[in-house]
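**User:** Everyone, produce a chain:

**Assistant:**
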Amino acid sequence: MLLQDARISQIIFLSLFLFLGLSTRDWTLRPDLMLVAIASCLLTQWLLSCFVPFVKSKIRSYQIPKLGAKEVKSRVQLFELTCLRSAAITGLGLCLLLRCNDYTTMAIAGSLAIASKFLFRHKNKHFFNPANFGIIAALILTQDAWVSPGQWGTDWWYLLLFFCTGGTILKQVGRWDTSIAFLVAYTILEGLRNYWLGWSWDVLQHELMSGSLLLFAFFMLTDPRSIPNATISRIIWAVAIAFLTFILRNQFYLSTAIFWALFFLSPLTIWLDTMWSAPKFEWLKTINKHLPNQSFTTS
């Protein structure tokens, strides 16, 4: 059952990226700040899962008469465990992307990242990517946070690594359309600009081989619980993010344009889900096979 949950693969891959970044890219990320990021995400997830009303009501819904106390307890524990997996992914994402010097900054990012899942919801679905929300919150609320989009460089083997690992995750969750739509639209826009300015194609190649861009496209942009449900909605949404990223990067010279574009356009998910209806993604679909009479969902 563990291997059928794509979040286990994500945790493994993101941990691998973190190890490679620290060992091959000479990152200055401190282990103590990494611990704060992950711990603040896990602790916030656990606290809010215990006290937020809609989560408590979801857990109580498992206590149906046909189930014994032991099975109810097992379901509740599994629900809480799967929620903590998502929190761990958010913490690893912050470790990979966010840089700061103070514990408080990282704790703010981790806590607000997870809190956004509980605060900003529509029809029992959160619409901000937690790691993205935590990064933007730290950038806005503190003077200590920054993001280094060029930290991965443009090495070919990183490109291959992100494609292979990202492809594995997207095959499990079925969200290839989102990454492809974003990358194709962004490539066309940058290609046209490159041609208009008369630059060599090496400039475009350098831009598109950015490890941070691919990490964003495969692992942040495709969070199935916060992006639009319908295929056509996801394509429209991804293309819109590509356009806004292009504008913010080339007109306003924001090196972190991809993160701001995702943040600004995340609420668009609500309208797109209203326009094109489709079933919500559930992380553990296979659990329903083992837990009859219940629809098992996670945040």
